[in-house]
Amino acid sequence: MHRPTGIAADLDLGGLPNARRGVELAPYTTFGIGGPADILAVPRSAEELADAVRWAERERVDWFVLGCGANILVGDLGFRGLVIKNEANGMAIADGVMRAESGVIVADALNASVELGLSGLEHYIEIPSTVGGALWQNLHFLSPDRSRTVFIAEIVQGARVLSGAEVREVDRDYFQFGYDFSVLHTCRDVVLDVTFELSPADPDELRRTIQANAAWRHEKHPPEAVHMSAGSIFRKIADVGAGRLIDEAGLKGVRVGGAEVSHRHANYILNAAHASAADVRGLIARVQAEVLERSGQALEPEISFVGEFAGESAA
Fold this sequence. Notes:
By secondary structure, the chain is an alpha+beta fold. It is built from seven helices and 20 strands. It has a five-stranded antiparallel beta sheet with strand order 6-7-13-11-12.
């Protein structure tokens, strides 16, 4: 349900943690793009996160949970409703098991586990994500020998999720993990915290793996990717590769407004010069059209479109 003119100014924000009105979302995304949210709330615990979602449901206000702001494009007109900037960051480790609230940054969880000589998270170095976001997309990277894809699903033991107004304990099977997929794509459940099962390992060996993974990423990915993009724009096409198709279509360096196809990795679109969401959408459409004409392959966006765009709503 949308309120086309925004949330009523007299709506009581009591019960919302750290709530502010009319906050620009661009600084909260890795693309650096996005108009204002009617309300931005910042929960710093799983309980506050649940309360914020319950408030939105009770008030019949659209809501969206924002983590690190990667893998999304926020519309230039912003979000008509409540954006919940998830900073629930409680974390505990005992007997090889980590319980992390969904707003914990994956890099922080990784560092904490390595210090204790625990393996499982070292594959995800320099990937901007919260724990909740990692489950949403089934975070993945190549194994140290680059022979297979390692998914975060492999270490998930269980989680607590907010389903409607109720908190449920779920196991790994609940998530129906797939490539860039979990059941969270198809429902409104919100992850409150996650339990990871880690395994003992030599901390020095873990650090060597982390360094090798970081070096591989630096070689393959644009150096500006973390701060100027949303990650890979299009979904993987088996045995072909979206980036390769875009490269073969001669589209590296092509621009629409301030949005540019990366010269380093063609499946990245960069905010090269104060790009708008409209610029990015226009460039996505151009890439799709030219790749389809040249190769017959239909590219499907991997990123999510959040909020309102000129002339349309994407939420």
